[in-house]
Amino acid sequence: MAMVDAGGIRLHVQRTGPADGRVPHATVVLVHGLLTDSLASYYFTVAPAFAAAGLDVVMYDLRGHGRSERPPDGYTLDQNIDDLEALLDRLAVTGPVHLVGNSYGGTIAFGFAARHPERTATLTLIESEPATAAWAAKLGRILDRVMTQLAHNEPDALAWIIAHRGHNTARLAKGAARLARETTLGRDIPASRVLTEEAIRAVRCPVLGVYGGESDLADLVPVERELLTDYRAVVLPGHEHSVLVEAPAAVGGHILDLIRAGAGVG
C-alpha cells in the first residue's frame, strides 16, 4: 500500500506482480467505478489472477474514494483523467499500459486512451461507455437521485437499502451519500467535457467490452462495434451491472485473452 502525490492530490495505490519474482511482461491499470466502489473490487476479484499471469498490476482509489484524499471540488472527468496521467508519471510507468475500467472507471480509461493513444496498449470497458452527451445526461439523473434520495433523505433511504440489499450495501451507500454531500462531484461529473464522435473513432487500440446480459448497457455493443476499429464484446448471461464481482473468473479470463494477444503474456 502507498499514498502517491499525483499532481497535488494524494491517491491510495496498490501495486502487485508475479509472486515468483518474474519480471512482469506488461502493466495493467485497473480503474474502479463511482461512489460505492474502490480498488477493493479488483483486489478481491481479478487482480490476483493478473499478477499470477505475469503482469504488473496497478490499482488505485479515485479522488474522493476509498483511502484517497477527498477535496471539496475538482471531480470532472478531465480531472480524473489528469489524476491517472499524473499517477502513471509518478510511478514511472512510461510504456503503453493495458487499461481496465469498471463502470465510471471505464469512461476515465477511455478518456485517457483518447488523450494518450501512445500510452495505451489495450482498453477494457466493463459495464462502461465513452463520455458522450447521452452519458452525461444519464449520470446527471443518477447523481441527482443520489443527492435527493440519499444525501437529503439518508435515514429513510438507508432503511430501505438495509431491508432490500443488506447492511454491507447500506454501508457503501452511506459513504456515497457523504461523498455527494461533502463535495461537488454530483455537479462536476454531469458538467464534464464529453468526447466527439471523431475523438471516439480515433481510439485505435484493441478494445474489449464486457457486459452483463441483463444490463441495459449491453445495448451499446452494436454502437461501439460501429464506432471502434478494433472492438470485440463479451455479454455474460444472467448478470447485471455488478458482473465484475459476480463473475470475476469469466471477466478476468476474457481480459487476459485480450492482453495476451497484444503483449505475449503466458
Widest sheet: strand order?
1-2-4-3-5-6-7-8
CATH C-level class of the largest domain is Alpha Beta
Given the C-alpha coordinates, what overall shape results?
globular
- Cα-atom radius of gyration: 18 Å
Mean pLDDT: 89
- State the separation between the terminal residues, measured CA to CA: 27 Å
> How many helices in DSSP terms?
12
Instruction: Domain count, please report it.
Output: 2
CATH-defined topology of the largest domain: Rossmann fold
Helical residue percent? Answer: 40-55%
Q: Judging by the overall fold, what is the CATH architecture of the largest domain?
A: 3-Layer(aba) Sandwich
Q: Sheet bearing the most strands, described?
A: 8 strands, mixed
Structural class: alpha/beta
Strand content: 15-25%
Secondary-structure element sequence?
EEEHHEHEHEHHHHHEHEHH
How many runs of DSSP E, i.e. beta strands? 8
Task: Enumerate the spans where pLDDT stays under 50 for 5 or more consecutive residues.
Answer: none
CATH superfamily of the largest domain: Alpha/Beta hydrolase fold, catalytic domain
